[in-house]
């Protein structure tokens, strides 16, 4: 806890940065003490007045620190003089240069042949692309920017991704589709910035020559090197040359690629992968070490039972009861999954027994980690030897269990946080998560078939003698420990879940992952 | 009242009181997104009921009554979210906020206290409250960790609060 004084807790709450423990401490203080409530009200008013105070533009304060080079400072002043549309640009420029996170995802491609400036990196479908220069020697590619804009690129092309809302087309042809939410998306070509105002447009660039922009729908604005802007409306086109842009009468009849072209051209790998997984899944369910296995197949909107498929004789008492969770698409088109979103969504289980060793595996699509803890599989309450398997807000896989349950919680609870693997840029991707536990091997976390170390925890040296499940929830938590414990509903989808009464080897976990990769 | 005048006087009164309503709603512990949503709803409800408003009565008090309803409504829709106080506590905070009659004097005191701060601290507050960028980004741009950033911010805000309280108690003569 950084600052556990009342003032510290209040300010932390106003900034929405308290941990669950801190929040609970604050709530208790406020409930019991009218003076504390008065203090909260005072700080809320201060916060509110600070927020509504209008003051000098922030861009200056932030930027000047990084803009000490006179030449650049001059251009900064210039930027400020130009209209407000440049404001966000100034801030963008002030952004630290060492940021190297993904800015876009390669969502589809057809016969694509790539080269990139990022060392040892060849783009492939579903890969996150970092800022850098990418050459598409041939074929088609669909790049979805995290800012919301999408482009279909036709090779040969040379594109440089700057950030989640900006790119430079050095050469080639593209069609950009910019939904209203991504308005302001920019592409530079021939020294002219094309700012999209929520629309669809095509851009063709030949190196060292003029470029041409055609607006199919909506409006774009070109900003030339003199800072002049030219609106280009639907049906119009403009030529961009040496930093200038002019409207042209004759629209280029060159064809621009479309997302449909990319998708029709791409192979049917997903069908093949789904078929392969089905085959593997049939073999996997006969593993005698399984406690239970759920393939989430053939669910319909009236399904209320998640069938246990482990073993050749069906053990229906280990079936799960589907509550709320909606049937949706899984890893492949045609495969069903359950979607967890609302407070009530869950699958209920009752799994008896005590297990000296255990491995839990899941295929999950994480849409958001918006809670302090987000359920994967939680036993009701936290009785002795029961365990909680969940995801932390920070994007780490978390396993916890205690031989004494909630008694002496802090002294006895073994907690294991993996290194964080998820952040919101990974939203909507499927992950294979596994954790194995035994007295001999301890706790091991695996993300997509790779073992990951721990980033934190408690009592990790104390052994775990056995584990129990009993009544439990997939994607939720029934019977929380404290009546005011926070909801832990998962925000995402699950389409395969397995429980083993043994420790799977790394090889087995890799095989599980490989056969189920979407 | 002519329709135009009617509309104009509502807009004027609402604008004059919006800041107080915002502070009131914020006092119940809602995050800024929710506060904005509540204020939007409050303005709509008030406008719809504007004909029923007695011109001689307290506009702000009326706004607070409506705001209380809207806070609880939004609170229910956000109930799944983290770190929202219980309804009971929110009501009690709202009671407290009504006791503290927010006035323009608070704002004046704040302005004076901001002026007294060293320039560096003032800039700090400005960046924290008026940038569209995330605190993480800002902290990075200033070469600080988010934790260190908040530590500084908390220190300045506590100082401001003490200064404001002093000014309000002494009638602003300090």
What does this molecule look like?
- The complex is a heterodimer of chains A (518) and B (174).
- Chain A is α+β, with helices and mostly antiparallel strands and 518 residues long.
- Chain A folds into 4 domains: 6-52, no CATH class; 58-93, no CATH class; 104-262, Sandwich (Jelly Rolls); 269-377 and 428-516, Jelly Rolls.
- Helix content of chain A is 21%, strand content 39%.
- Chain A contains 10 helices and 30 strands.
- Chain A has helices spanning 6-14, 20-32, 34-52, 58-66, 70-81, 87-93, 259-265, 269-284, 409-412, 506-516, and strands spanning 104-116, 128-129, 132-145, 150-163, 166-177, 186-189, 192-196, 200-205, 211-217, 219-223, 229-233, 237-241, 244-248, 290-294, 305-306, 320-323, 326-329, 336-340, 346-355, 357-368, 373-379, 387-392, 397-401, 414-418, 429-438, 442-447, 450-452, 454-458, 467-474, 491-500.
- In chain A, strands 1, 2, 3, 4, 5, 6, 7, 8, 9, 10, 11, 12 and 13 form a 13-stranded mixed β-sheet that branches. In chain A, strands 15-16-19-29-21-22-23-24-28 form a 9-stranded antiparallel β-sheet. In chain A, strands 14, 17, 18, 20, 25, 26, 27 and 30 form an 8-stranded antiparallel β-sheet that branches.
- Chain A is globular, with a radius of gyration of 27 Å.
- Chain A starts with 5 loop residues before the first helix and ends with a helix.
- The relative contact order of chain B is 0.09.
- Chain B is mainly alpha-helical and 174 residues long.
- Chain B is globular.
- Chain B is built from 8 helices and no strands.
- Chain B has 2 domains: 3-99, Rna Polymerase Sigma Factor, Chain: A, CATH 1.10.1740; 104-169, Arc Repressor Mutant, subunit A (Orthogonal Bundle), CATH 1.10.10.10.
- The model of chain B has no long low-confidence stretch (mean pLDDT 82).
- Chains A and B meet through helix 1, helix 2, helix 3 and helix 4 of A and helix 1, helix 4, helix 5, helix 6 and helix 7 of B.
């Amino acid at each position: 806890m950084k600052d556990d004084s009342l003032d510290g807790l209040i300010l932390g709450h106003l900034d929405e940065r308290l941990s669950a423990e801190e929040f609970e401490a604050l709530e208790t203080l406020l409930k019991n003490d009218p003076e504390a409530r008065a203090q909260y009200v005072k700080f809320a008013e201060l916060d509110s007045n600070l927020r509504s105070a209008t003051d000098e533009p922030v861009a200056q304060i932030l930027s000047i620190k990084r803009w000490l080079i006179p030449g650049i400072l001059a251009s900064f002043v210039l930027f400020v003089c130009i209209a407000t549309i440049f404001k966000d640009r100034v801030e963008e420029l002030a952004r630290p240069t060492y940021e190297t996170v993904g800015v876009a995802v390669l969502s589809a491609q057809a016969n694509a042949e790539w080269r990139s400036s990022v060392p040892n990196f060849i783009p492939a479908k579903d890969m996150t692309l970092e800022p850098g220069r990418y050459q598409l020697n041939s074929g088609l590619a669909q790049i979805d920017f995290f800012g919301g804009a999408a482009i279909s690129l036709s090779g040969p092309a040379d594109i440089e991704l700057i950030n989640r809302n900006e790119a430079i087309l050095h050469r080639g042809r593209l069609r950009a589709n910019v939904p209203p939410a991504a308005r302001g998306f920019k592409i530079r070509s021939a020294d002219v910035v094309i700012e999209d105002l929520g629309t669809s447009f095509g851009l063709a660039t030949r190196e060292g020559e003029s470029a041409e922009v055609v607006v199919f729908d909506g409006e774009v604005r070109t900003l030339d090197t003199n800072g002049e802007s030219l609106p280009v409306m639907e049906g119009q086109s403009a030529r961009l040359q040496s930093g200038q842009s002019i409207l042209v009468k004759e629209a280029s009849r060159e064809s621009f690629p479309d997302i449909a072209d990319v998708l029709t051209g791409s192979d049917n790998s997903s069908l093949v992968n789904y078929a392969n997984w089905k085959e593997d899944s049939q073999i996997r369910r006969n593993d005698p070490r399984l406690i239970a296995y759920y393939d989430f197949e053939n669910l319909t909107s009236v399904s209320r039972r998640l069938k246990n498929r482990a073993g050749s004789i069906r053990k229906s008492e280990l079936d799960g009861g589907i509550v709320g969770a909606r049937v949706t698409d899984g890893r492949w088109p045609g495969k069903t999954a359950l979607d967890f979103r609302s407070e009530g969504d869950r699958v209920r289980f009752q799994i008896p027994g005590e297990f000296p060793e255990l491995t839990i595996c899941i295929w999950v699509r994480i849409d958001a980690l918006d809670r302090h803890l987000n359920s994967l599989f939680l036993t009701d309450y936290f009785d002795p030897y029961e365990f909680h398997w969940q995801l932390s807000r920070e994007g780490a896989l978390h396993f916890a269990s205690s031989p004494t349950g909630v008694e002496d919680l802090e002294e006895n609870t073994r907690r294991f946080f993996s290194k964080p693997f998820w952040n919101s840029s990974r939203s909507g991707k499927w992950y294979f998560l596994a954790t194995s536990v035994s007295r001999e091997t301890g706790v091991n976390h695996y993300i997509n078939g790779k073992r990951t170390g721990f980033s934190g925890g408690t009592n990790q040296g104390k052994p775990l003698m056995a584990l129990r499940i009993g009544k439990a929830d997939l994607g939720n938590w029934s019977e929380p420990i404290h009546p005011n414990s926070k909801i832990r509903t998962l925000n995402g989808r699950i389409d395969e879940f397995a429980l083993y009464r043994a420790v799977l080897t790394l090889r087995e976990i890799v095989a599980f992952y490989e056969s189920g990769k979407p | 009242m002519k329709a135009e005048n009617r509309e104009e006087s509502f807009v004027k009164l609402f604008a004059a009181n919006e800041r107080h309503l915002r502070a009131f709603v914020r006092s119940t512990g809602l995050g800024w997104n929710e506060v904005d949503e509540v204020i939007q709803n409050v303005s709509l409800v008030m406008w719809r009921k504007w004909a029923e408003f007695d011109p001689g009565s307290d506009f702000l008090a009326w706004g607070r009554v409506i705001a209380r309803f809207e806070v609880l409504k939004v609170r229910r829709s956000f109930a799944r979210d983290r770190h929202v106080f219980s309804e009971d506590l929110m009501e009690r905070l709202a009671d407290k906020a009504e006791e503290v009659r927010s006035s323009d004097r608070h704002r004046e005191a704040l302005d004076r206290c901001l002026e007294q701060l060293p320039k560096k601290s003032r800039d700090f507050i400005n960046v924290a409250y008026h940038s569209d960028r995330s605190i993480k980004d800002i902290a990075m741009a200033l070469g600080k960790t988010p934790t260190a950033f908040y530590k500084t911010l908390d220190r300045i805000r506590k100082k401001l609060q003490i200064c404001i309280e002093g000014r309000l108690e002494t009638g602003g003569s300090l």
